[in-house]
Fold each of these.
Amino acid sequence: MTQPDTIPLLGLGWNDLLFLAFAAVMVVAALAVVLQRDIIRAGGAMIIAFAALAGLYVIAGTPVVAGAQVLVYIGAISVLVLFAIMLTQTKAAPRALAFQTQAVPAAIATVILALLIVASVLTTDWPKQVATQVADARSVATTLFGQFTLPFEVVSVLLLAAVVGGVFLAKRERDRGEAD
Amino acid sequence: MLSALNLISQNLNAYLVLSGLLFSIGAFGFLARRNAISMLMSIELMLNAVNLAFVAFGAFVSTADPSHAAQASDIALIVMAAAAAEATVGLAIVIAIYRNRKTPLVDEYDAMKR
C-alpha cells in the first residue's frame, strides 16, 4: 500500500470515504425505490441500491457475501422484478396514483420506527472490536459445509419448491398450457 | 475537515443505523405503495437491511469464536437464498392475480370484501 492512511485534505481514511459514499448512494437509491412514481425507474434504483450494498459488504470484510449479492440480487432478483414489471405494466395502471391513501400515516409510523431503531442502537453497549474481522472464502466454506450443513440442504429443498411453485403459479390454468 | 467521521467504516453503530434506515425505508414502501411489485421490492430492501445488520455484527462484535464472521456470512447467504425463493413465488403470485384481475394495484384486489 503506497497510499497514505488518511486522505490529506479530508482527514478521512479511504475506507471511510468509500463507506460514506456507498451509504449515501444506497439511502438515496432506496428512497427512490419507494418514492419514484415510475415503477421501471424504481426498479433501476433498486439495482443501484443493491450494488452500493455490495460495496458496503466488501468494506465490512465479507467479500463472499458481496459476490453473492451481485450474483443473486443484481443478477437474478432484479431481472425477475423487471420482467414482472414489464408483464404487468399497462395503461390501466395509473402512474400518478402510486401511493395508497394511508401514505401519510405510513410515513409517520416509519419515521418513528427509524428513530426507535437508531435510539436503541446508540444506547446499547455492544461488545465492539476495533479491527474488521474478515470472513474469507475458506472460512465461510468451512463453516457453511460443516456447521451449517442442515440449513444449506434445507435451503436447496426450499429453492426447488420455490421453482416448482413459481412455474405452477405463473402457468396458465387451461390445458393448452401443456402444448407449450 | 471531516475528521470526526474518521474510522466510521469500522464503527458497528454506523452499519446498524444504516441498516435501520434501510429497513424503515422498505417498511414505508411496503405500507404506502399501491403496486404489488413495488411492495415486493420494498420487502427486498428490508431483507437487505437485515443482511447488512448480520454482516456488521459478524465483522465488528468481538467474541471468543474465531469463525464468528464466517458464520455471519453463512447466515447472510442463507437469507439471500430464502429471499430469492420469496421473490420467485411472490412475483408468480402477482402475475397469476394480474392475469385474472388485469391490474397490479393491491387496493383493487377486493374480491373478499364484496
Amino acid sequence: MSVAEATVAPARPAGRVSGRHLLILPALAVLVVFFVAPYLNLLLISVMTPSPRAAYLRVLTLDNYARLVRDPFTWSVVWHTMWLGMATTALSLVLAYPLAYHLARSPRGARGALMVLVISPLLVGVLIRTYGWMILLQDTGLINQLLRALGLRTVPLMYNNLGVLIGLTHVFIPFMVLSIAGTIQGVDPELELAARSLGAGAWRAFWRVTFPLSLPGVIAGTVLVFVLTVSSYVIPSLLGGFTVLTIPILVVRTITELFNWPGGSALAILFFAITLGALWVYLRLAGRTGRTT
Amino acid sequence: MLRRGERVWLNAAVALVYAFLLAPIVIVVLAALNAGAYLRFPPEGLSLRWFVAFAQSRSFTRSLAFSLKLAATATVLSTVLGTMASLWLVRFGGRLRTTLRILLTAPLAVPGILTGIALLIFFYALGWGKTGFGGLVIGHTLICIPYVFLITSAVLVRFDQSLEEAARNLGASPFATFRRVTLPLIKGGVISGAIFAFVTSYDEFNISLLLSGVGNTPLPIQLFDYLRFSFDPTAAVAGTISIAMAVVVVLLTQRLVGLESLYMGGG
C-alpha cells in the first residue's frame, strides 16, 4: 500500500486489517519454531556423520540411509511394525463396524449415552488402559486365574504379539467407530429397507447396499488406525516386553541409548515418510468423503 | 432395517465389544479399591489402603502435582492460541486456509514419539539441553493446539456472523464485540476445547518420555517407570484418578457441545 492510499483509507478498516492477522500470528509462530523447525533439524541431522565423541560431525553424508536400507535387521523391524499395524487395523475394523452401525441407527437419546461409552476410553490415558490389560493378561492375571480355576492350562497372553495386538486394538476401536458411524448415518435407512422388501436377506442387503455406501468412512478409519498403530510406543513396549520391537521403539533406543543421533534421525525420517504417505491417502479420501456426504 | 431376531444378534455382538472396551478401565478401578496386593477372585474386600499408599508416596504425589501444573499451563496457552487461530481461519482464512488448517492439526497427525525426538534434538541444538518444565510446556502446547482449534472451529462455523456485524454497526469496538457477542456464543466450544487440552496434556506420554528429566517427571512417565518393575495397585490409584477425570470431561463435553460434533469428518 502506498503512503497516499494509506492516508486516504479510513482509519478503522486499516486497523482491522493489521489487527486481524495478529489472531493467527502467535499460533503460527509456535508451530513454525517448535514444530516445523525441529522436524527440519531432524532431517538435517539425518545426513550428518555419526561420531563416538560428539552428537554428530558436521559432514554431510547419505550413509545413514544407505546403512538402514542395507540392514536386514531394519527390514525385519519395519515388517513387524507393518504386520502389527495391519493386524490391528483388520481386527478393530471387524469389532468396530457393528458398534458403528448400532450407534448410527440408534434413536437420538440412546445415541448420546452410547457416544459416552465410545469416547470415554479415549480420554483415559493409554498408559492406564495398558495397565488394566496387564492386570488381566499377565501370567498370574485374572484371565489365567480363571483358566486355572477351570482346570485348564494357562496361556501366555502378555510379553508377546498377542498381548500387543489386544492392547492396540482396544485403544484404536473408538477411532474406527467414529470414522464409520458418521458415514453410516449419512446412508438413508430406506435404501436398506427397499432392498429387504425386494427380497434380499439381512446379510445381502447389508453387503450390497449399506456396506458399499459406508466405504468412505471405512477407508478413512482404516488409514487413520493404521497410522496411529504403527506410531504407538507405550503399548508395544509394556505389553510386548523385550520380545516386540517396532520402529518407534527402535528410533527411541537408537537416540537415547545408543546416542546415534544421525542414525536414529534417518530412521525417524524414513518412518515419517511412511506415515506421511498413508496420511496423504487419508486426507484425499477424507476430502472425497466430505464431498459425497 | 433389521428384524427382531437379527437385532438380537447385533445387540449381543455390540454388547461384547462394549464389554471389551470397558474391561481394562473397570479392572483398574477394581484393583485400586481391592484390599489385596493382587486382584483375585473372589476379591479380598474393599479398602482404601492403596489410596493412602498413593497419598504417602512422595514420588507419586510430586509427579501428580507436576502433571497438574504442566496441564494447566499448556491448557491456558493452547486455548488462547488455538481459539485465536480458529477465529482467524474461519473468518479470514482466504487462500491460505487449507494449508494453515493442515499445519494447525499436523501435531495431532504425526507420530507423537517423533515430535518428541525432534524437539529433544532441537533443544540440544539450541544449546538448551534438558529444558525441564519449559520444554515440556512447549511440547504439550503443540499437542493441545489441534484439539482446541478443531473443537472451536466446529462451533464457529455454525455461528451467525451478522450478529457481530450488528454489534459493530451499533458502534461497539472490535474488542467489545468479541467480549460481549462472539465469546458468549462460542463459549461452549472454547471450554470443551480447553477441557480436551487439559486431559490431553495430563495423559500425554510420548513427548513427556523424551523431554522429562530428573525432578521434572509428569505422572504418566512416573507410572511407566513403575509398571516396568511392579504391578503394585498404587499405580491403579493414579489410573482411577485419571478415569474419574475422563468421566467428568465426557459428561461436560456432552452437555456443552454434544459429542456427536466430534465425529471424524463432521463439524
